[in-house]
Amino acid sequence: MTFLSHAIRRALLPAILLLILAPVLPPHAAVGAESAEQVVQRLQLRYQQLTSLRFLFTQQTSGQFAGRPKIGSGSAILVNDGQQTLMRWNYDSPDQQVIISDSVSVSMYFKDLNQMIIAPAVTAQTDVLLSFFTGDRALDESFLILPPEAEPVAAAADSPHQLSGAQLVPRQPHSQLRSAHLFIDDDSLIRRIDLMDHFDTRTIIDLETIDLDPIDVQDAAAIERIFSFTPPPGTEIIRQ
Question: N or C: which end of the chain has fewer CB within 10 A?
Answer without folding.
Answer: C
